[in-house]
């Protein structure tokens, strides 16, 4: 079986369920943390219908996740957002306002307010998560050096409100699960001594009962497809992106 297919994703989800993990949205976990819990986070950067497919698969399995939407046409779609929310999933704002504002935090907060209001006009929103914007020299999290997102009724932002010394973070950035070397901003320090490259590596340690008790997965659903030609195209494009991001990291 090829990795980064919907079939591989189903296998991962079924392995987590069989191992006895409970599934929590990000906001739920902050308000009521529990042991042996998985948070399924999804950054809807592109191909929003792929995220809708993930949401439907989770709904079929009786689990829920959190979906962060950007304010760009490739991501923001009121119909998709409503459908995902109506299935019981959490919807949050995938903010990149420092990038939009060319690094001006005062302009960025005005854009943040405008975009948050627009998303809340569609569904309730209680959490946010930065978009990495790898090509930008601006870190979107820097707006919070000047302002407090909790004043906007936001309960949390993963990079500020989760203790990743206690919560194992796995992200498919770079179209691999050990892509920290080619990730500009979507990375945290690994305190668990695990290095997992493929989805099947993850499934293996789940089956061996070696996956930590509390895990946040970060998926970019645009990377996952059973369509062979789209899968090859995404694989090739991501390989080029990884080289570019590696060079960006070295230059910075």
Largest sheet: 7 strands, parallel
Shape: globular
So what's the CATH class?
A: Alpha Beta
Name the beta content range: 5-15%
CATH architecture label name = Alpha-Beta Barrel
Total strands: the figure is 7
| Whole-number total of structural domains | 1
The helix/strand class is: alpha/beta
Seen as an oligomer or otherwise, the chain set is single chain
Give the % helix: 25-40%
Q: Distance N terminus to C terminus?
A: 38 Å
CATH topology: TIM Barrel
Would you identify the regions where 5 or more consecutive residues have pLDDT less than 50?
A: none
What is the residue-mean pLDDT, rounded to a whole number?
92
N-to-C SSE string, H for helix and E for strand: HEHEHEHEHHEHEHEH
Estimated radius of gyration: 17 Å
Number of helices: 9
Written description of the protein model:
The protein has about 250 residues and is α/β, with parallel strands linked by helices. It has one domain (about 5-250): TIM Barrel, CATH 3.20.20. The chain has nine helices and seven strands. Strands 1, 2, 3, 4, 5, 6 and 7 form a seven-stranded parallel sheet that branches. Strand 3 (about 65-70), helix 4 (about 80-85) and strand 4 (about 90-95) form a beta-alpha-beta unit. Helix 1 (about 5-20) runs parallel beside helix 8 (about 200-205). The longest helix is centred in the last third of the chain and has 24 residues, at about 230-250. The radius of gyration is 17 Å and the shape is globular. The termini are far apart. The model has no long low-confidence stretch (mean pLDDT about 90).
